[in-house]
């Protein structure tokens, strides 16, 4: 009898506890998701009512060179960004792990992560100013005869990627470092007794035991990386970027709010959902694999 | 040898991380007229605070123009206040609502619980831009563009991640205290507010802090919904400032002064709550 009563209690309390979250979820997640899918099958300019056009937006998308370019540019960005950021972060984390527990150092490395991407973009637009930028001045001092600029088709995307790596490497390093702290210290001590050097220990102890964390960090930052927008929106002075830097988020933004092609923008966003869906599925598989790996 | 090289690498990383911020401050302290002459100087020849006072709207527009401003109305004092309200409000309300839900998902038993949780977690896979387009339409239809409700409502009550994170947390804490409290005859509601919440202060502050940082950094949504002066947050203010600045010779000293203002509050957060923030990384590392 008492058990039944308690169950009834939970039922009422349970749903009451969920009210704010369910309201927020239905209005600002579920409803817009359904609406977004619907828009992708319509012609909608924000001024008129959405008019159903079947798969027209998707057909247009297949032949849209700018769309494919945006995908390509974004992929390029993701590879440079994630590659540099993860490698340097791994190195930094390993150095910290073996050398120091300094909280001040960790806090300092975290600072760029705390700062809005808009600020980061502005700061680097200034540092990389073709005439007065300090980084270009340094390059001149060292004797490199190139001017780095976001307006250079060759340098635009690598620069944006490296700027964001600069902003997120410390954060990533701290995530990996937190993972390294879980590795039993004894392993390193006995390896040292056996005469293993630091490099050997990194390869044979740190890397294999950290693999699940690396996989997790990698995929989470990968998905975040696809959503690059702020930096691109800022380093071109708030105007449209050059085509070599027109990433997928910016393309969607432009279609929706510059050209008012809401339906088309929704279709492009659907493609992004699919791409990220595949990546998430990959993430799940990797996580499962890594879990069984750890035992 | 290896040890020395390792330290050197760490110090180098530190310099690369910190120096750009030093340069930001240095530029903000340089008079606009000296920008060219001092472009490589490590310290301005005539340091000044005029760039700060003018972006904060504390001097007349003639004085601001004389100091290198474009003459357009710019009020970073207001934008900073807006940013604080925006991120503070979202962090507090969202954390509490998501804590309630997380607790229900972790501890209470009722039919449909796991289904609802599954649906919410599935929304983690939808990139923000996908819901952003229809949400903009919705806010526009509700006539809430350039109002604070329009700005905060979409993230005020929940994000799927916070619900997920807090459920995981409540699953991980021991049940003993709650069981003891049940014997005392406390209801679920009282239990949550009087026992569970105070007990979980640490992790709640942690996720609240993370939410503050992310909202502080928000750009695209406030750009679309709160571009008008009264609702402009710092990031949008910086973007507008940049757009108003002449293309050929941007007002770098003013822009860097505005940038410093966007760094100071989060830096204070780091100074006073650094340990908590660093801990938050340990959590997300294990999620």
TrEMBL record, chain A:
Stretches that traverse the bilayer: 12-31, 75-95, 107-127, 155-178, 209-229, 259-282
Domain (ABC transmembrane type-1): residue spans on this chain: 71-283
Predominant place of localization: membrane
Gene3D superfamilies membership: MetI-like (1.10.3720.10)
GO BP: transmembrane transport
Topology within the bilayer: Multi-pass membrane protein
Record key words, sorted: Cell membrane, Membrane, Transmembrane, Transmembrane helix, Transport
Pfam families, alphabetized: BPD_transp_1
GO cellular component: plasma membrane
Subcellular location: Cell membrane
Family: Belongs to the binding-protein-dependent transport system permease family.
Listed name of the protein: Sugar ABC transporter permease
Native source species: Herbidospora galbida
From TrEMBL, chain B:
One of the GO BP terms on file: transmembrane transport
Database matches in CDD domains: TM_PBP2
Keyword Cell membrane: yes
A GO CC term attached to the entry: plasma membrane
Segments traversing the membrane: 7-25, 84-106, 115-139, 151-170, 191-216, 252-273
Cell location: Cell membrane
UniProt keyword terms in alphabetical order: Cell membrane, Membrane, Transmembrane, Transmembrane helix, Transport
Main subcellular location: membrane
Membrane topology category: Multi-pass membrane protein
Ranges of residues in domain ABC transmembrane type-1: 80-273
Similarity field: Belongs to the binding-protein-dependent transport system permease family.
Protein's name in the database: Carbohydrate ABC transporter permease
Record lineage: Bacteria, Bacillati, Actinomycetota, Actinomycetes, Streptosporangiales
